[in-house]
Amino acid sequence: MALTPWHKSATPRVDLRKGKPLDAAEFAVNLDRVRDGKAPDDYKDPKQFFERTYLTKNLTALAAEVQRRFSGIKTETSAVFNMATQFGGGKTHALTLLYHLARNGPAANGWPGVDKILAKAGLNSVPGAAIAVFVGTEFDSITGKGGGASGEPLRKTPWGEIAFQLSGTQGFDLVEEHDRQRIAPGGDVIRSFLPKDRPCLILMDELMNYVSRNRDSGLSDQLYNFIQNLTNVASGEDKVVLVVSIPGSQMEMNEADFSDYNSFKKIMDKHGKAVMISAEAETSQIIRRRLFEWSPEEISPDGTILLGNEAKKTCKAYATWVKAHRNQVPGWFPVDHAEEMFEAAYPFHPMVLSVFETKWQALPRFQRTRGILRLLALWVSKVYQESYTDAHSDALIGLGTAPLEDPIFRAAIFEQLGEDRLEGSVTTDIAGRKEAHAVRLDNEASSAIKKARLHRKVATVILFASNGGQTHGTEATLPEIRLAVAEPDLDIGNIETVLDALSVNCYYLEAYGTSYRFGLQIQLPKIHADRKASVPKQEIDECLRDAIFRVFNEGNIIKPVFFPENSSDIPDTPALTLIVLSPDHRRPDSRTIELIESMTKDHGASSRTYKSALIWSLVDNDASLTSEARNALAWEKIHFESEQLHLNERQNREVNEKIGKAKRDLKEAVWRSYKNLALLGKDNRIYLMDLGLIHSSAARTIVDLYLLQLKQKDIITSSISPNFLVKNWPPAFSIWSTRSVRDAFFASPLYPRLLNQQAVKEAISKGVSNGILAYFGQSEEGEYDPIYYRTDLLPDDVEISEEWFIAKEPPKRSGPCTIVVTPEQISIKPGDEVQFSAKVMNDRGQEVQTDAIDWKATGGSIDQLGLFRAGDIEGTYSVNAAARDATGSASVVISAGGRSLKRIVVSPQDAHIGPGRTQTFVAVGLDADGLEMPLAGVDWRATGGTIDVNGIFQAGMEEGFFTITASAEGVSSSSNLIVKALSPHWAGEIPHQKWTQFYNRILSKFAARKGLKLLVAVDISDASMEEVEEMRSALRELGLEDDVEVD
């Protein structure tokens, strides 16, 4: 059944239709502003004011009684009235009504509702009256009013102000001294300034504000005396009415305020009549008149609104639904009079007004009439606009339609509830953000629930009906929720469905059986479950990566390699290397084992040398890791959103504790999961180890635990003995380079893996000290020097390289060396200089490197670089060089006689180099006797390349025969040069004792060049099949073909 939308039967006032922002001032009139003509039109325009004022029974009675008093009728009238309603209950509105009537007198007779007042008063016309208005929030006793350019006397007290308003300057003159001394006048003085020719109305509003501000000056006590005297005077006069509104907001009073409030209230209770402006049953009529526009035909003679046929049809439909479900709605609701209830509240649902008039009355900050009007004005304005923009066609304005998505409306709600921290609850669970839970659930729901916006409506009803969780024991019951949101065409079973979804998804919703409430305390388990379910896989992977890194990086005994994707990601170095596979690579998966085998044997495009150095760590499965990572991330997300979720201190502390525990649990999950090790076995196959159930208390770090387990199985060792080296000496080697010794422990699974290379140095050190091993160096010329044997040798003095060796016995040293000095003979003049050079040669004719040459000479002086300077005495002298227990000499002839250069010798005479390479040429000058003489300014020339002044020739890329020429003092000499690439070939048999020397002295210098090829033919006699298999295995380890032929 299609019902007419509410906005087509009840038209909001124009400013609400236009969506103009309304603040609390719209419904909180300032009486001083009305008197000055500066109030909004709804209050300063008396006719408009009466059009929008519903004359409640009490307001009508008050106005009528005041008019009777003005007319001199004392029966059933009071001279003093105490406006004792709740804060925001319409007190100032009533004062304004009395003001307009008194000020306009008979001119008010035709205003809407005035006839009702006159009828109640038994009068034919409104009598005018002199008026005095005092508003405590406005009057300032320091600056006062009037004075100066205004031409008015300066008034600084309430009695001075009231006397001036009632009787002008003459009236003020009567209390001028009282005003100056700040002393309240007595009854006689008060009577003297009251007008004698007309009635008198004194309106006093917001007294507590003035009292609180002027307590220290003593004026508050004088005001008390003044009001006491004024009430006595008014009670004794015929046509004087005093109406006083005492209270401010009691929430804002201090102890002194309460004391003064009680004092003033006692005076008013003793002399005055307490007035309650409206009863609960009249609230709907007040709201209708203030918020909607009605034609005169729609207002009954008693001021109530007359509904049209479509509105009545709607009310009847809702009432019929209530009667059909009488057992499912609250027992307090008058089901048999449901139609009257809906008509009385239209266009609102009765539950809207019921919540304000019953449950919200318990809230300290709730302003009864003003608060309701303020909220409903914003409400009506917003839902009116939504009725067009969102195509909503609600037949009534129900609790569930509250525009909580509007921040201005939310702020107004929170102000009345006295708790702005509800912002987080509302925007998270109901509305205000597009991801709010109720909004999201509606979007995901079935078409019927989505169209009805049922999740949002139910959640909104719970918020209002549970007072925002601000009063204890106030929950929204299931019957109340049904009554508030159900519509004639709605499947009532959907309400329970919606409640179940909200209970699971909303963070701030608390359920107590079939009662519900929204509060400030976020339900952590709910939000954690929600966050946990929405953690993306990418974040889980990143979290696991970080957790695994932290666990394996503790201690740094071995630097791990994490999650390699290619074999080249794993270094090929002689050091124990732990490889941690990602959780995606699980032990039961055969592809994981294949990956380990491939990366163990290969390093990029080459074969891996140090296969035995690799230790792999892998998981059985990643379920536990994923679960713990998801758990930790969910708590961290809650911590990150703590301000947005409005967590309190206790909850923040709980979240931090949960994060700490989640991190610990994740660490333990890493330990439990990475319990599998893989490494190369002695059979060159991957060997798997399951360490069982492990945990972080088993060792300082997980790497320590691995090493402990591997040590127990003799797979890893931290030390080796010299005897181990002797026992496992390669039979092909007579001497063993220290580098090869070290490499053997990381290249072959037949050797235990070394935890540290220092173990090799320590073994050699012990072996040398005990005479088990000899340790020595070998120069490029093959000389063994120095040699350490049966002597103390510190481990740190042992060098791991290809130039240092060990042997079971110390090697023999080479024979004595000689020194060749050049030039061997030379003739120079006194004072001339000549540069000598020296080479240390061993007994095999090979040059031996030495640190320094010790030079000595006769007939002149020589420095330690070999530069000789001749003396002045002619003769034949010698130059001597000494180094490494060897000596050498040259002859120097010092002669002043004239000598001339006869011949130049260029060496080498015949040279052969490759394209682009360099060759150094030397030019030596000889005299007629064949003695060498110094050359000055040699001019070098060359073909096939370039040559510098020092005789260094740089060959071009062209091959051929070329000439090098040296010239000096008109004498020239040449040398021949062939530029051609050299490709040496050699084939021969090498005794096993010289295999290492062959490599060091011949092959090592070419090893880095691309053109070196080494073809090996191996012939072994008397080998066992076991040795053949070992040979094949070793070849495979080196990445070589294992095709070994056996005869």
From TrEMBL:
Q: Nucleotide-binding: is it a keyword of this entry?
A: yes
For this protein, the record's Pfam families field holds: DUF499 (PF04465)
InterPro entries associated with the record: DUF499, Ig-like_fold
Task: Report if keyword Protein biosynthesis is assigned.
Answer: no
Gene Ontology molecular function: ATP binding
Q: Which UniProt keywords apply?
A: ATP-binding, Nucleotide-binding
Protein's name according to its UniProt entry: ATP-binding protein
The protein's organism comes out as: Methanothrix soehngenii
